[in-house]
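FORM 7B: Structural annotation worksheet

SECTION A. Query
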Amino acid sequence: MKLVLLVVLFIQVIQAQEDTRVKRSLYEVGAGGFYSQLPDYPGSENFRARWLVIPFFRYRGKNFRSDDEGTRAIFNQSKSLKIEFSFGGNFPATSSGNKTREGMDDLDFLFEVGPRIAYEFYKDETGRIRVQLPLRGAFATNLNFMELDFFVKRQGTITGPEFQFERILSPHWEFNYWLSLNYLDEGYSDYFYEVKERDERTNRPRYNAKGGFLGYDHSAGFLLRTENLRLFLGVRYSDYREAEMRDSPLFKNAENTVAFMGMTYIFKKSKELED
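SECTION B. Predicted structure
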């Protein structure tokens, strides 16, 4: 989910709009790192320090691209309507560190992947405005790749429209704003908000979670960029007051605000330029 996975912040930073008036390198290789204090899951009252360092690869081929406009196969020549890949997820969290979930199963790492349709209403050298509609499948895993108990389990589906506004303030500064509406199916909702009979307690009654609207995420931030280095500082406000699963005893925090920061650095660029 975009609220709680720094991978999404990473993607937004490395996909920040570029100057398309000049030809760019065919590919670039780099790495990014991020830090924030994030809730264990949407609606959790428990926050933990989260950091992430991952490599990235940008490619600007004729038929496939992963760049400022997302990761996508190019099926047609439309400059406004695009079909892209979309990613998201949620960090793992131990129930022993969360009083609300004490005695319940730990939350495994949850990753999301799927297609999205994107339409750009406006784009030039000063910025862009676009809307997106992703449809991502969610998969839980324990990340024990080298052990016999490694697993990947399909958990559910998340979707919802997204609005993105980017404004180039100067050659080195950019402002970004995102608005997303999140809808979960029952499987995804069960993962966070279901209370099974074996997990019942006096202050945690049994609850059968249903799918539906989760809430809104508002994000805003500033990006500082040089030729190879990008620094990002932002804030995100989440509003879950209208969530369909608001009555779950595991749903404790209907509103929250988090700050985040990050950076990326490009280590290598190809001498060959894009077509």
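SECTION C. Observations
The domain at 6-269 is CATH 2.40.230 (Outer membrane phospholipase (ompla); Chain C). Residues 2-6 have pLDDT under 50 and may be disordered.

SECTION D. Sign-off
Analyst initials: ____
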